[in-house]
Amino acid sequence: MKELTDEELIRSYVVTQRNAYFEVLYERYCDKVYRRCLQLTKDPVKAEDFTHDIFLRLIVKLGSFKEQAKFSTWLYSVTYNYCMDHLRSHKHKEVYVEEGYENFPDYTDTDDAEVADMEAKRLHKALDHLTPDEQSILMMKYQDDLSIRDIAGMLEVSESAVKMRLKRSKEKLRKYYLERVIFWLVLLLKLLSTCKWPFR
């Protein structure tokens, strides 16, 4: 049974309703869903509760999986939407002004190396300044390597809107990252200026 593909497991579960098929899917994706929930919530207890709830909902939702995308992508969408719905109910939601995005400077991959080159610790600190929506869209693109089309389908927006959101989120991330780099550089210079060197 473990040799079956995700899609074969889903079809078999929908037809037979045997828990064994669902349990294999659970084993494959439980940790991944938990890690995604933890990244979005920053709370281990809440992430565990969300993971439990998502798989309970998945039992009902599997029948609606149409195999138009990979199961892993579809499950990511379910996880993202569930977490965002709960996070937005407890936190102010940033509203994107989407009108006129056709004229927004086009998103390109040429400067993606900047995100990859950011030091891990400073990158995580900078990410904390972004909204859950901004963090998620960056993780989809750079951590999960999803295509613009896949992200657009998951968020139910146009590809142009995804490009706009990515560009805005990257610019905001770059701003906070550079601010931290400058802060530590200034601090280092101050420390050096107070040092008494043993030689002149």
Task: List descriptors.
mainly alpha; Arc Repressor Mutant, subunit A; Rna Polymerase Sigma Factor, Chain: A; 200 residues; single chain; 9 helices
Task: Please render the helix and strand layout as text.
Elements: H1 6-16, H2 19-41, H3 44-61, H4 71-90, H5 113-117, H6 120-127, H7 132-143, H8 148-155, H9 159-194
Can you give a write-up of this model?
The chain has 200 residues and is mostly helical. The protein has two domains: 85 residues, Orthogonal Bundle (Rna Polymerase Sigma Factor, Chain: A); 90 residues, Winged helix-like DNA-binding domain superfamily/Winged helix DNA-binding domain (Arc Repressor Mutant, subunit A, Orthogonal Bundle), CATH 1.10.10. Helices cover 70% and strands 0% of the residues. It has nine helices and no strands. α2 packs across α4. The longest helix has 36 residues. The termini are far apart. About 7% of the residues have low confidence.
In short:
With 200 residues, the chain is mostly helical. Helices cover 70% and strands 0% of the residues.
Taken together, the total number of domains comes to 2
Output the helix-strand order.
Answer: HHHHHHHHH
CATH superfamily of the largest domain: Winged helix-like DNA-binding domain superfamily/Winged helix DNA-binding domain
Q: Please report the total strand number as a whole number.
A: 0
Secondary structure: helix percent: over 70%
Protein name: RNA polymerase sigma factor
Domain RNA polymerase sigma factor 70 region 4 type: 122-173
Pfam families: Sigma70_r2, Sigma70_r4_2
Organism: Nibrella viscosa
